[in-house]
Write a structure and sequence with these properties.
Elements (H helix, E strand, L loop, with lengths): L2 H12 L2 E3 L5 E3 L11 E2 L6 E2 L2 H12 L4 E2 L6 E2 L2 H12 L4 E2 L6 E2 L2 H11 L2
Antiparallel strand pairs: 1-2, 3-4, 5-6, 7-8
Length: 119
C-alpha cells in the first residue's frame, strides 16, 4: 500500500466523512445558524454557538442522565454513549477492517488495529 493510499484510508478511518454532491469527501460539521449568538456556561468557561452542544454540556453540571439502558441500570448523558454501552450486552461490532476479518465495538480499536497490522 503506497503512502498516499495509506493516508487516504487512515483519514477515512479517523474522521466522520460524507460524500458531497461533486463526489469529494469532507468532514461532517454541526451547522451554526447564528454564529454571533454564543451560549456561555454559568458554571465554567465553556462556550459554544451550537445550542445542542450547550445543552449536552449542561448535563455535566446538573448530573442529568436521560438515556437509560434497557438491559441494566446504566444511564448516560448522551445517546451515543448509551449506544456504545448497549454493545456490551448485544455483542454488536459495527466497525469492520477493510483488509481482514477484524471487527470491533469501538472505532478507536479499529484504528489501532489498522495501524498495527496494515500500515
Amino acid at each position: 500500500m503506497g503512502v498516499s493510499s495509506f493516508s487516504y484510508v487512515f483519514e477515512l478511518l479517523i474522521r466522520k466523512v460524507r460524500p458531497e454532491v461533486e463526489g469529494r469527501w469532507s468532514s461532517v460539521a454541526n451547522p451554526v445558524k447564528n454564529p454571533s449568538k454564543i451560549h456561555q456556561c454559568a458554571h465554567c468557561p465553556y462556550q459554544t454557538p451550537i445550542i445542542s452542544n450547550f445543552k449536552k454540556h449542561a448535563r455535566i453540571h446538573t448530573g442529568e442522565k436521560p438515556f437509560a439502558c434497557p438491559h441494566c441500570p446504566f444511564r448516560a448523558t448522551q445517546m451515543e454513549n448509551l449506544r456504545k454501552h448497549v454493545r456490551t450486552h448485544t455483542g454488536e461490532k459495527p466497525y469492520t477492517c477493510s483488509f481482514c476479518s477484524f471487527r470491533s465495538t469501538k472505532k478507536s480499536s479499529l484504528t489501532a488495529h489498522f495501524l498495527v497490522h496494515h500500515r
